[in-house]
């Protein structure tokens, strides 16, 4: 056989195998899953397009709300799921292609759900793998898929998949879902804190209850609380008028002072005074997610981003020529938020000296720095009255105030707790401690073996 005949035979055999494969393929029964989708879309699977949008894990509840709102305007719709091994690591359009002629055993199954938080004490069920038949804004048929995280397959975040015969129809539906999702964002007006999961270091968001505090519960030097509230809340109240006059809204507040003097307590007061304002709290290792937090704050404005103990990520230049990379990531996030955003960055620190140089070399990030000092005698008496429930005789207060010079609000809070415990050990009936109980608790806390306790509560070095 010469080379020409060999090539002809090879081509004939190749065509024979292709024809046989086509005959076998066509003879296979079409899966119920593929039939349902193609029947709704009136289009062969090979001609379908899929438009996908991914979101962070913590946006799953909001995405579910967006899809639910979209479906609500287009009549009732029933979700259906997909069964089959390996479905978690494949896109829905690929699953449909593999199941078209039964090459992979993917069929209609139950919808997968998970429960996720929508507030400090509220949850909803979200679809983690499911499909629903509906129509695009232009009336053409589409199938919407919702997928949750599949971390074991390397898939983080949640996503929506819109499958249609037309890319334009799928894109329009996806855009409308996202618009409704942002309108009904479950995080708007909430107090949120970033954390880290044990799996792959993924960022998490937790909802916290909003504090309830009155100005009489925040003991600061005269005028300090009013200045802080005017800077944070006052600008927000006049946001439209300020913008109309060409003034920026973004602001930065630095609360500095020794540990235990009330910086965090002051922040909690601001939260209580601004209901409906989104608050994002960053502390410790979660600060690495500051860019996500800043983007969230801008999207959910008016908002406050609280960065607690920022000195822990600020290294003096004597330790690093460039300073702290994480600190400058924070500064970059503050810059990128935009001057027109109604967003306040509130930084707290026990070591303003570590921040001053970095802030001075990049001015404009903080426009108000307020010291929260150790309480003077009048403030110490006020703290004792506050935590003691207003039942302590003034003469006894004077003796306690004299012996607690330099002590902080945290110290007095612990002092009153110990006094209550002392009274309960003697008699569970009284609803308040006596002066004897307070004196006993103070003697214990001032004893030499509690020097570290005093330091941890913000007492000055001895």
TrEMBL record:
InterPro entries from the xrefs? 26S_Proteasome_ATPase (IPR050221), AAA+_ATPase (IPR003593), ATPase_AAA_core (IPR003959), P-loop_NTPase (IPR027417)
Q: Which UniProt keywords apply?
A: ATP-binding, Nucleotide-binding
Q: Name one GO molecular function term.
A: ATP binding
Question: Which top-rank group of organisms is this from?
Answer: Bacteria
Q: Does the keyword ATP-binding apply?
A: yes
Q: Which residues cross the membrane?
A: none
Q: Which CDD domains match?
A: RecA-like_protease
A single Pfam family it belongs to is AAA
**Cited SUPFAM superfamilies:** P-loop containing nucleoside triphosphate hydrolases (SSF52540)
Q: Start and end of every AAA+ ATPase domain?
A: 249-376
Q: Member of which family?
A: Belongs to the AAA ATPase family.
The protein's name: ATPase
- The protein's organism comes out as [Actinomadura] parvosata subsp. kistnae
Give the lineage: Bacteria, Bacillati, Actinomycetota, Actinomycetes, Streptosporangiales
């Amino acid at each position: 056989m010469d080379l020409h005949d060999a090539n002809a035979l090879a081509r004939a055999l190749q065509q024979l195998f292709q024809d046989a494969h086509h005959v076998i393929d066509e003879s296979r029964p079409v899966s119920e899953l593929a039939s349902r989708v193609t029947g709704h879309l009136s289009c062969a699977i090979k001609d379908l397009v899929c438009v996908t949008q991914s979101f962070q894990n913590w946006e799953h509840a909001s995405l579910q709300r967006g899809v639910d709102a979209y479906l609500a305007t287009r009549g009732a719709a029933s979700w259906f799921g997909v069964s089959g091994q390996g479905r978690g690591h494949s896109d829905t359009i690929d699953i449909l292609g593999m199941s078209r002629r039964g090459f992979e055993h993917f069929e209609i199954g139950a919808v997968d759900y998970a429960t996720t938080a929508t507030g400090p004490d509220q949850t909803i069920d979200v679809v983690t793998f499911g499909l629903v038949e509906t129509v695009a804004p232009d009336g053409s048929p589409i199938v919407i898929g919702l997928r949750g995280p599949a971390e074991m397959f390397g898939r983080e975040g949640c996503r929506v998949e819109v499958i249609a015969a037309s890319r334009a129809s799928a894109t329009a539906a996806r855009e409308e879902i996202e618009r409704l999702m942002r309108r009904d964002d479950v995080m708007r007006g909430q107090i949120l804190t970033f954390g880290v999961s044990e799996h792959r270091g993924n960022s998490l968001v937790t909802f916290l209850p909003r504090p309830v505090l009155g100005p009489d519960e925040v003991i600061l030097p005269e005028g300090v609380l009013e200045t802080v509230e005017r800077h944070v809340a006052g600008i927000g109240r006049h946001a439209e008028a300020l913008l109309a006059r060409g003034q920026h809204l973004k602001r930065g507040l630095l609360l500095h002072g020794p540990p235990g003097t009330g910086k965090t307590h002051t922040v909690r007061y601001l939260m209580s005074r601004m209901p409906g304002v989104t608050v994002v709290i960053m502390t410790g290792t979660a600060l690495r997610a500051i860019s996500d937090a800043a983007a969230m704050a801008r999207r959910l404005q008016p908002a406050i981003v609280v960065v607690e103990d920022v000195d822990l990520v600020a290294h003096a230049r004597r330790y690093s020529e460039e300073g702290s990379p994480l600190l400058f990531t924070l500064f970059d996030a503050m810059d990128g938020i935009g001057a027109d955003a109604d967003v306040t960055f509130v930084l707290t620190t026990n070591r303003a000296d570590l921040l001053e140089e970095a802030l001075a070399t990049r001015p404009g990030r903080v426009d108000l720095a307020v010291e929260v000092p150790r309480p003077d005698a009048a403030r110490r008496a006020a703290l004792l009255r506050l935590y003691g429930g207003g039942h302590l005789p003034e003469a006894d207060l004077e003796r306690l105030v004299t012996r607690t010079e330099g002590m902080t609000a945290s110290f007095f809070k612990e002092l009153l707790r110990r006094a209550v415990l002392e009274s309960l050990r003697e008699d569970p009936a009284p609803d308040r401690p006596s002066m004897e109980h307070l004196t006993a608790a103070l003697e214990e806390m001032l004893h030499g073996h509690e020097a570290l306790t005093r330091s941890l509560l913000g007492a000055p070095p001895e």
